[in-house]
Amino acid sequence: MNKNRSPYKAHLFICQKSRDKKRKSCGDINDPKLKDILKDEVKNRGWKPQVRISDSSCLGLCEFGPNIMIHPQQIWLSDVSRDDIPDILKIIEDIICGDSE
Fold this sequence. Notes:
The chain is an alpha+beta fold. It is 28% helix and 19% strand.
């Protein structure tokens, strides 16, 4: 095993876990285009080498979903929708520019 630092300033994990409507879950509510839109915006802004966007399975807080976790900043976004994309991009921009918490 090799222990390394993450090559990304920010890594967004977007929960896609579906419970087939048996109980609330991110994947049943999540806008399937949300990840694609964020990936396109990150690429278009030239952030791709510094920012990674990945699918995630269950993050454990289904009742607050859809959820996005931003690592390593320990930022948790809940009840996320397409309307939140400008705010998410501002969070990422602040991380890239060094203005995050």
